[in-house]
Design a protein that fits this description.
mainly alpha, single chain
Length: 175
């Protein structure tokens, strides 16, 4: 049993990103792969449990919340087709939150990436948005607020789903 839902989600995404390989020498060098309750699981069991955690959280969340969880915990903003799908959904959310007008998608994408710990300079984003610094800060505030709203909903829905599935300890369990 995990202590909280963020640790369960981090573990699930990290585990699902690892291949199932039977290399005993590498496995012994890495040490025991135990989790919160101290159980030693085989790689197949770990992947099955990670899939169950992802499924339980995914059933409770809507499309925007799943995209947020993938971007936050799954490192889906690095490469590949999964990154494009996640970014497309987050772009829809962000573009819908902005006021009416002509907004440059690449600049909005860079603001979203900055939210998830990338480091693009303000001057680069202003050039991509073709706007002033004041407008950049307005756009950034609006996009960050939209992403924060989704993060609160996603974290709450995932926590409730994982707790009802018995994967996460109740809030008062460790007190």
């Amino acid at each position: 049993m995990f202590r909280n839902s963020p640790s369960a989600l981090q573990w699930a995404f990290r585990t699902s990103g690892r291949p199932i390989v039977k290399l005993s020498s590498i496995n012994t060098m890495m040490g025991s792969m135990s989790r919160g309750s101290g159980e030693n699981l085989t790689p197949q069991e770990r992947h099955a449990e990670a899939a169950f955690i992802y499924l339980a959280a995914g059933r409770a969340c809507d499309v925007y919340e799943i995209a947020y969880l993938n971007a936050q915990y799954g490192a889906q903003l690095h490469h590949g087709d999964a990154e494009k799908a996640v970014m497309k959904i987050l772009m829809q959310l962000s573009m819908g939150a902005l006021p009416t007008g002509n907004h440059r998608r690449r600049g909005v994408e860079l603001i979203i990436r900055n939210y998830f710990s990338y480091d693009f300079k303000r001057s680069v984003i202003c050039r991509k948005l073709d706007c002033t610094v004041r407008r950049y800060y307005e756009y950034r505030e609006i996009i960050y607020q939209a992403l924060e709203n989704v993060s609160y909903r996603a974290e709450a829905a995932a926590a409730q789903a994982l707790e009802s599935a018995g994967l996460v300890a109740p809030a008062d369990y460790f007190e």
